[in-house]
Amino acid sequence: GRPKTLPLRETIDCYIDHRRTVIRRRTEHLLHEARRAAHRLEGLIFAVCDIDEVIELIRSSRTREEAITRLRERRFQIAADHAYAPQIPSILIDRGSDGGVSLSKLQAEAIGAMRLIQLVGLEIEKLTSEYGALLEKISGYEAILAEESRVLQIIRDDCLSMRATFGADRQTTIEDVED
Questions:
Q1: Alpha-carbon torsion 38, 42, 44, 48, what sign?
Q2: What is the chain's alpha carbon radius of gyration, rounded to the nearest angstrom?
């Protein structure tokens, strides 16, 4: 909590500890955001796979809030023999096998905010590819948080990048001198 003079080794250790903290916090934030986006996409994929019922449910509702409530009460399930099943990640098909999945408020609001044209069948390809990319990012973020060696590799890569960016002309030189 107070300023003090440190030897070079302790200064480097402090810098590495700081970078560890920054990388972990950044990765946790990115993981949270990716999980949230994947969760939203799951709801949209369920809606596109059962589009006729979703449209009927929304049309028969009197208010937006009622439509969202009814979407949340409905249980969604993607059958293994569904026309879109080959394109959909198996994790979503397996998830609904126990009687269906209820949508969260975030998912129901995302469906309510979509334009009707976005719910057409060709949109499923875009949704599933985006969902697959998010799943890859999520597994990458989890791997970074699980292994300290990955965090250290990121720190090492950042240092090498700084060296390449700023070159040798801006490097600090350390010399032994007499007082």
A1: positive
A2: 25
Separation between Cα atoms, residue 140 and residue 36, nearest integer Å:
16
Please state, in angstroms and rounded to a whole number, the distance separating the CA atoms of residues 166 and 162.
6
At 32, list the tokens: 């949270």
pLDDT in single tens digits along all 179 residues of the chain = 788 899 999 999 999 999 999 999 999 999 999 999 999 998 888 888 888 888 888 889 899 899 899 888 888 888 777 777 777 777 777 665 567 788 899 998 988 887 776 666 657 888 889 999 999 999 999 999 999 999 999 999 999 998 888 877 777 777 888 87
Q: Please state, in angstroms and rounded to a whole number, the distance separating the CA atoms of residues 13 and 148.
A: 15
pTM: 0.79
At a CB cut-off of 8 Å and minimum separation 6, what does 55 contact?
116, 119
Contact 76, 96 (CB under 8 A): yes
Neighbours of 54 (CB within 10 A): 22
